[in-house]
Amino acid sequence: MPEQLHARVEACYQQAETFFKRGFERPRISFKLRGQKAGVAHLTENLLRFNPQLYKENHDHFLKQTVAHEVAHLIAHQMFGGAIRPHGEEWQLIMRGVYELTPDRCHTYAITRTRRSRFVYRCACPERDFPFSAQRHALVRKGRRYFCRSCRVTLVFSGEQRLE
Q: How far apart are CA 77 and CA 43, in angstroms?
């Protein structure tokens, strides 16, 4: 499976090199991306990260559009520097001119949401609770305090957990 993606990245680089008549440094590629993002280009690290689940579920479109989208970010950075906007005219030029693709900012892949455990916090307001993520709950356990904006009382863990 990753072989096709690596081949597509290489093909995108070769297209850009032919178009711009110059070489580009190849990036490292990682398949350690989860959640809603299909891909991420880390410009200063010359690194591409891809979501293996979305790749598997949307294989053909992912190879064509998402890979080119992320490679275009790295090409734009190497060509024009770090002061450009992420989906600005330079990136759009590469998407349209080099890859002949629509410069879509976001994918439309179906995302399967996983249920997450929430820690229920309460204040002095009647029938009001605040579901905290595990990360925020851990911060509270380390001493961070959060306040209700209505009653201004410190939020306190109720002892309850629920799945959302």
A: 7
pLDDT at 1: 59
> pLDDT tens digits for 72-128?
999 999 999 989 999 999 999 999 999 999 999 888 888 876 778 999 999 999 889
The domain spans of the chain are 2-98, 117-163
- Would the pLDDT of 159 be above 80? yes
Mean pLDDT score, 142-163: 95
Q: What are the start-end ranges of the H helices in the chain?
A: 2-20, 52-57, 59-61, 67-80, 89-93, 134-141
Q: 2-98: which CATH architecture? A: 2-Layer Sandwich (3.30)
Catalytic residue among 25, 70, 100, 164: 70
d(CA 118, CA 162): 5
CA dihedral 25, 61, 30, 3 (to 10 degrees): -80
Decide if 70 is catalytic.
Answer: yes
